[in-house]
Amino acid sequence: MSVVRTRSSVRMVEWYPTPFVTVPGYYFLMPDTSLLEVFPSPTDTPFLVEHINEEFTSVCPKTGHPDFGTVTVRFEPDKTCVELKSLKLYYHSFRGEGIFYEAVTNRICEDLVEVMSPRWLQVVTDWRGRGGIRSRITACYGDVPNSCVDH
Length: 151
Prior knowledge:
Elements: E1 3-5, E2 20-23, E3 26-29, E4 38-40, E5 49-59, E6 66-76, E7 80-82, H1 84-92, H2 101-116, E8 120-130, E9 133-141
Antiparallel strand pairs: 1-3, 2-3, 4-7, 5-6, 6-8, 8-9
């Protein structure tokens, strides 16, 4: 994650070549899919992969306060699987990110589909309560089997 600290009240850095989100006084680059690495699937036989990150953090874009959640990714690989250390580093790149829950969930789904091209993929984010409200967001790609859908 790249952070640019400024002393002025300017909220945009026009010269920077990639998009980013701001929290007052800080500029955070959007998470980078180049952090994600893949490896060949060990078999052509269909199988389920489930990765659970219980320590996901991002930042509320309205308040700048931290958001804490659990990210569950389920997918059926086609030709490749995501490498876990690279997935962890990718998740860490959201730590300073001013981004809404719904955008986090869909961004992770889109980025993983882009790098892996799975047969199907599901991302579920469970966010810890704030102000008495807990949130669960689900994003899917492809035909997720009913047996894999959280109810």
